[in-house]
């Protein structure tokens, strides 16, 4: 890449950063010893170069909730570039959460809120280079859409929704009626279905199905969260436990009670 130009000039093609340094020009006299030459001239070549990364973290990195992780960016350029870290456009500095030193960013006491994109920026007067890494936080699920109380009429279908997020995302959902798994209730287990997205469907509801239903998502990491909602079943008045025969002694007042239940309650 280097050649003489116009007999006395040095020409360097496709200049590289490693070409930077001191160059000496000497006029050689054939009738003199080389070590007696003192007519040389020195010139320094400065090669300006925009920042380029020599080391970056992977595009995706994983960390466990409660732990810490260090992301390292190394950049080369002339002049030497400055390396900073940003998250969602905001410059990160030293704090209880972040430690920044020589192009490295350490995220401490990682929580679910720390997941997302982190951008390394190397810049100088010659330009800039950026690299983005996405942090994935491993931990138990987080319920983003809990179930809500619902009211349905007898014999209709009832549906509770429950949505959770987690990484890894291999979520499974369990539903409880009061304190028992819905699949352990003899009369209920044949009329329920749990969908892959966490939705609970109760077919042909009965008054006895009313109560508290609890959604429990799990991905086998940490303690699973839970969220509850109540099912109210509306049904018309009905007589319950009415004895077929009532005996009343002769000569005293007799009372015949009619035990009735309904939802909403009724008055006689």
From TrEMBL:
The keyword Disulfide bond applies. Keywords: Disulfide bond, Repeat. Residues 51-138, 140-232 form the Ig-like domain. Transmembrane segments: none annotated. CDD domains: Ig. The keyword Disulfide bond applies. PROSITE patterns: IG_LIKE. GO terms for biological process: cell-cell adhesion. This is Protein turtle homolog B-like. The lineage of its organism: Eukaryota, Metazoa, Chordata, Craniata, Vertebrata.
């Amino acid at each position: 890449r280097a050649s003489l130009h116009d007999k006395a000039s040095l020409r360097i093609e496709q200049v590289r950063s490693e070409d930077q340094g001191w160059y000496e020009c000497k006029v050689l006299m054939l009738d003199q010893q080389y070590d007696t030459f003192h007519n040389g001239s020195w010139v320094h070549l400065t090669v300006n170069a925009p920042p380029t990364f020599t080391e970056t973290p992977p595009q995706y990195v994983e960390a466990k909730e409660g732990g810490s992780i260090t992301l390292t960016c190394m950049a080369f350029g002339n002049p030497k570039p400055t390396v900073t870290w940003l998250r969602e456009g905001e410059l990160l500095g030293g704090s209880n959460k972040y430690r920044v030193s020589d192009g490295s960013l350490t995220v401490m006491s990682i929580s679910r809120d720390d997941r997302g994109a982190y951008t390394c920026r190397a810049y100088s007067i010659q330009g800039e280079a950026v690299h983005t890494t996405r942090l994935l936080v491993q931990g138990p699920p987080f319920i983003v859409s809990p179930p809500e109380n619902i009211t349905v009429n007898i014999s209709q279908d009832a549906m509770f929704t429950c949505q959770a997020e987690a990484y890894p995302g291999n979520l499974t959902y369990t539903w409880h009626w009061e304190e028992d798994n819905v699949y352990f209730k003899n009369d209920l287990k044949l009329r329920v279905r749990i969908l892959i997205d966490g939705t609970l469907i109760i077919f042909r509801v009965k008054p006895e199905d009313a109560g508290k239903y609890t959604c429990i998502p799990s991905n086998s990491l940490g303690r699973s969260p839970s969220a509850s909602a109540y099912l109210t079943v509306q049904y018309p008045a009905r007589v319950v436990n009415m004895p077929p025969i009532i005996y009343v002694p002769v000569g005293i007042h007799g009372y015949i009670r009619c035990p009735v239940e309904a939802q909403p309650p009724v008055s006689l």
